[in-house]
Design a protein that fits this description.
The complex is a heterodimer of chains A (about 300) and B (about 375). Chain A is α/β, with parallel strands linked by helices. In chain A, the strands form three sheets. A six-stranded mixed beta sheet of chain A has the order 6-7-8-3-9-10, with helices on both faces. Chain A has a four-stranded antiparallel beta sheet with strand order 2-1-4-5. Chain B is an alpha/beta fold and about 375 residues long. Chain B has a four-stranded mixed beta sheet with strand order 2-1-3-4, with helices on one face. The chains are: A alpha/beta (about 300), B alpha/beta (about 375). Chains A and B meet through β6 and α3 of A and α1 and α8 of B.
Amino acid sequence: MKEAIKVENVSMKYEKSKVIALDNISFKINENDIFGLIGPDGAGKTTLFRILTTLILPTQGSVEIYGFKTTKDYKQIRQFIGYVPERFSLYQDLTVYENLNFFASVYKTTIKENYAVIKDIFIHLEPFKNRKAGKLSGGMKQKLALCCALINKPKILFLDEPTTGVDPVSRIEFWETIKKLKENGITIIVSTPYMDEAKLCDRIALMFNSKILNISTPDDIISNFESNIFKIKSDNNSYLKKILNDFDKLFTAYYFGDSVHLAISKELAINEEQIISMINEKNIKIFEFSLIAPTIEDCFIKYLTNG
Amino acid sequence: MKRLINFIIKEFKHIIRDPRVLLILFGMPVVQVLIFGFALTNEIKNSKIIVIDFARDEISKKMINKIEANKYFEIIEISQNKNIILDYFREGKIKAAIIIPANLSSDLNHSGSSQIQIITDATDVNFANSIKNFIRAIINDYQSESLAGKVLERLIIVPEIKMLYNPQLKGAPNFVPGVMSMVMLLVCVMMTAIAIVREKEIGSMEVLLTSPVRPIFIIISKVVPYFAISTIDLTLILLLSVYVLDLPIQGSLFLLIAESLLFIFTCLNIGILISIRTSSQQIAMLMSLVGMMMPTVFLSGFMFPIENMPYVLQLISNVVPSKWFYIIVKDIMLKGAGFEIVWKETLIIASMMFFFFLVSFRTFKVRLN
């Protein structure tokens, strides 16, 4: 598969605040992939985006996009990328049409010329063509921002936390849109703090604390996961979590919704009955105890606790 | 080119669709000129006075007529009752009272001199002084007229004070050049800086920077509308000062406009520099207000004379562009000076503009800071 982006040993240290935002990161992104950067706030996702979009230069390392270096070839790169920053809020006092028209003129093109690219998304916006962007709903704003980034028919689309603060229905719609864009041949790099969106990507990078913990397909990350996950519901989750963590060094217990997940290394010779009896000894009542398939979030937590 | 026009049109839309911005851009200059020109002045116009005329003879009547003919005073009552004076003053109805003694003409005929009393409301010291001087001048005037032809037995030397360029001590001549530099600063520095920084705040600057648009394009498209608006403001101020404040432009209108354009360019460069260095609208506004407005008000000589300032402040005032602009405008508008007189100040402003242009050009980046 052809590679679209090559990142080599990239580090970023902010001069003023002395914060290390990226610590020696290397990875590749294949053409026509949906590549997800998954990680909590402050992991370094936005900094990485800004480096990939030529907005800032890394303190160390190099980035190549289709063979163009972000340092000296930024003018070529800027011709074929589309970028929706996290805090991008459009021009609130311009109408939907005016916003789109403006960004079309930025790329020396017209809405007509590239209508095919945005058609599927713009069709939802059409009824509100003459409404000011500030008066649109959150989901509509996001669609418009996406249209503005697509109007130059980019080869690569960068979306920085597009689903943060978006309602669940719009999120599902949004990911369907992204899938369609992929079918049109666009490479999409998307960041999100939501672990459940990870499985919608072709490949993901788990980011934490300026580092990439793992890069793979979501399925590979889950199947290579070397622990069994038990989902436990009880009458005293906080105590349960404590005694499980104290019981063995190879036990990792953490809250997961209304239950506690227990990750145990597959190598550890221990069976379910032993764990249940151990919990019962402590007078904790168990409502549910089951072996489940790990989620990306389980993998993420496991990476974090293993350091 | 088409792209640039599109950019500029978009910028105009931003301005036109925000009524508050429109109010600042067009309402403020008008209001400032009118307030400074009419309300905040210490010139004497239609000041109400009363005359207590005990003499009631030909001379006193002539004198009263002379005072009444003057547009600076309005006699609201001529009475022979001295007691009403204090009441009038207390109620704030009058600014001054003139008391003409009963023996005015006999004194004048016999000894050649007489005395009249002028009482002024000294709660406003400057105002009282001006009124006193005015009335004295009017009476002197009358004296010299009525005594003309008569042979004076002895020469009385009266000091004659002439107010050059602004004989009536009008407020407007001083304020108009000051208001001009203030409005230019607000429009060119503050509004321009805010307009550019707003793009950073809403994140569109990031999008524009990742596009093939050259950053200088973004700047130019931001500057053009504000340049257009400042020229409109300039015209507005000049029209108001000529036709409403009766302040004719003594020098060349062309030179005045040329100098103003130079100042506008300087301000635009400062605005761009501020926008490059700041990342939020509030900071940009604060920097323009504290960094530009305050020095203009306090150190340009427009409110307080620079000669009376401590030496350090006098030195600092030299780096305030509006000080030089203020001098230029005053020279051209009031004294009718030509370029041969204001070339030095022009050179100073021009070099300031060049300096700001260089600094902002060098600090401007094709990437985020």
